[in-house]
Amino acid sequence: MIEGKDSRTRSGVLRYGMVGGASGSFIGDVHRKGAVFDGQAELVAGCFSSNYERTVLTGEKLGVDLERLYRDHNEMAEKEAAREDGIDFVIIATPNYAHYAAAKAFLLQGIHVVCDKPLTFTVEEAEELERLAAEQGLLFGVTYVYSQCPTVKQAKLMVERGDIGEIQVVVAEYPQGWLATAVEHEDNKQAAWRTDPKQAGISNCVGDIGSHIENTVSYITGLEIDELCARLDAFGGENRSLDTNAHILVKYKNGAIGNYWCSQVAIGYDNGLTVRVFGTKGSLEWKQESSNYLKVTKLGEPPQMYSRGNGYFYPEAAGMVRIPAGHAEGYYEMFANTYLKFTSALLKLKQGLELSPEDLDFADARDGVRGVKFIHKCVESSKQGATWVKFEEMSK
User: Fold this and answer.
1) What share of the chain is helix, strand, coil (3-state, %, to 5)?
2) Is the peptide bond between 324 and the residue preceding it cis, with omega within 30 degrees of 0?
3) pLDDT per position as a tens digit, 216-233
4) CB atoms within 10 A of CB 10
5) How far, in Å, CA of 377 to CA of 230, rounded?
6) Which residues contact 75 (CB under 8 A, 6 or more apart)?
């Protein structure tokens, strides 16, 4: 199936389509910039909105031919799969509720997928997408993009190489303040859908930003969760049914412990994702808002600040750096690195070459499944009065 699509690649440039991400969408624009950053993909098709007129307006603005602007994701998947010059992969940048159906439609047509997080509403849906991708031999990326920051990669490598010893404690937080008041009633479309269970799912705060904590910690440390205990609260507005604040205690399978906090009512904070990892020989601290730096402290030594772009980074992390030290890299570059990994792997796959673990070093469907499971286990624990629940066991 994949070999049959080789004619769709022109001069090493992959063709992609997008579901969601109409004009005015913050995340849609970020995806598009990231996808084309390195010249390995071009946008040729789209179903940017459930409103076809808005899809057409967006397509015209982006230079997409009218015949490749579609009314829904099913039409797009079927017609693009039938074209000789059809898309090689699709980006799904919709609110959460539409992820599963759209991703499944493209997988069934043999088209590779990159999807926003959280992957689906239910664990069963996420596992089905993972299975379909594996059965079809398709790549499936999930945009947990913080793993594509050079300093996060450096932290991961330092843990793997034993630089800070055996991990004992992890402390991570992700505070924001944008939902401290009921802005969902003030024509804030992002707030409106994220606080709506029909569009966001069973969780807002944990689903939106708590899942980033889980993924970033997992990527850096390699630790597997054994049990967790969570309390979720809906602060910041009357009649909110979804969480805007969560405290989560974690026990890992190696005996280490973790403490996570995520909040969207933390006044004074913008986007404060922070991960602290404490081992027997040292510690690491990474902050998203100063992502060019990694704080490293070895036992008995003064703290050091590792600066992205310098020669003391391990080669795999140094290879992700795009501009010299001192020039700020950040959010767009993390998306660009995600798409560079994904498109490079896809180009290599289309040439019939074997993919290495480094080729596949981006969040995939398995990470997506784990993220959905994390959300569900946090909600389950909170509903039971903040009791400890086993991570691998799902309630019926």
Assistant:
1) 40, 20, 40
2) no
3) 999 999 999 999 999 999
4) 10
5) 8
6) 47
